[in-house]
Amino acid sequence: IKRRRIEIMEIEKSYYDVYDVIKLLGVSKSKAYAVMREMNDYLEEQGYLVISGKVPARYFNEKWYGGTHA
What we know:
Elements: H1 2-11, E1 15-17, H2 18-25, H3 29-45, E2 54-56, H4 57-65
Antiparallel strand pairs: 1-2
């Protein structure tokens, strides 16, 4: 049951960190940070608060997968 709970928590993450982006996109660490920086810069321009080193999972999934998780 504990393992299942961890899997569900991973699916429902609110924010992705660099390691999530690396795994999802199959890119290097520096490229993952660049992608996250670009996304956060755009969100900040739109008036949203951002967390450095993280990107909102919902926004990421909308931009990369059309709103669904790959």
